[in-house]
Amino acid sequence: MADQDQKKHAASAQKLDRLRKDGKVPESPDLIASISLIILALGFFGASGSLGQSILRVFGVFLAYTGAPLEIGGVMTATFWVMSLLFLVAVVGVLLVGFLLKGWNPRSENLSLKWDRINPLKNATQKYGTKGLITFAVSFGKMFAVSCLGAVITLLFIDDLQISRGLEGHIWLAAQGLKRLILICALIFVLFGGIDFLIKRNAFLTENKMTDQEVKDEHKDNEGTPEVKQKRRQRAYEISSSRMMQDVAEADVLIVNPVHIAVALKWTREKGTAPMCIAKGQDLVAQNLKAIAIENAVPVHQDIPTARAIHSVCDVGEEIPPDLYAAVAIAIRFADGVREQARKSPFGGTS
């Protein structure tokens, strides 16, 4: 109980996927049985004509027996094939529903004999514990509802059976009552099966909640996977690229290669400080930096060696090294001259 109290977090998708691969999913035999009954009922309705004719022939042979065994044998064979087809449809329906609920996960571990599955003590706790009470309540509810409906349908058809004439009329009325009973029972089973599945699913999710430590361990494991690292790098690059594009508008000068490399510098002109690289890029990124610089009237200075040097030795946010002071000073003076000329010019502009 103490361990369960520590499980405060809902099971992650990764944990649920691991459980599913191990064959551990919320199971509801009642839901599977109810859906198979629906499929069986639909098949019964579809084959009711052939099945009814076979039943009529069987009763007719019994009531007017002529000593011809081949006739009744043929009728029984036809009835057998019709019933076999119905049950085959039901089996396929059960397999399909199981596949939809659990998915396709064939594993030798799921087929191997395990002591937990035949442990009488564990089975006793499942049958007589909380789960057992829930199962009993659902089963009792289904039995009670079906019994009541069966009694109601029987009472409704008693008068019709009394006034009907001939074997064929009796069998037709019985078939109509059976159809209604099967359909109503199927709907009741689906209702109780759905309730049972929701209860089982809620219990399954509660049982497999995660503790704080499990969440941390899973997060740590995910952090180490190549996929997560790649996504993190891609996200960081996108964020930094977006920030760089915004910072270019505040740059003092953009030094270009001129096509393949662009480096944006900003200098606060405070004592003891050097110009700082606030954005850089190659190829398409360089072209975008240049376009933004021109759009925001940032002077663009072409200096191939200096652009390459700054791009290779400076990261974004770092000051330029002392050996590049002279070359960068030329670029800063160029930018100051362009701005001064723009202020004096009646039309403004940059070069």
UniProtKB/TrEMBL annotation:
Q: Which domain of life is it from?
A: Bacteria
InterPro entries listed in its UniProt record: T3SS_substrate_exporter, T3SS_substrate_exporter_C
Q: Where is this region: Disordered?
A: 1-23, 212-233
The Basic and acidic residues compositionally biased stretches are: 212-229
Q: Name one GO biological process term.
A: protein secretion
Gene Ontology, cellular component aspect: plasma membrane
Sorted UniProt keywords: Membrane, Transmembrane, Transmembrane helix
Presence of keyword Transmembrane:
yes
Annotated TM spans: 31-48, 55-72, 78-101, 132-158, 178-199
Which Gene3D superfamilies does its entry note? Answer: 6.10.250.2080, secretion proteins EscU (3.40.1690.10)
Give the Pfam families listed for this entry: Bac_export_2
- Family per UniProt? Belongs to the type III secretion exporter family.
Please report the name of this protein according to its UniProt entry. Answer: Flagellar biosynthesis protein FlhB
Q: What is the lineage of its organism?
A: Bacteria, Pseudomonadati, Pseudomonadota, Alphaproteobacteria, Rhodobacterales
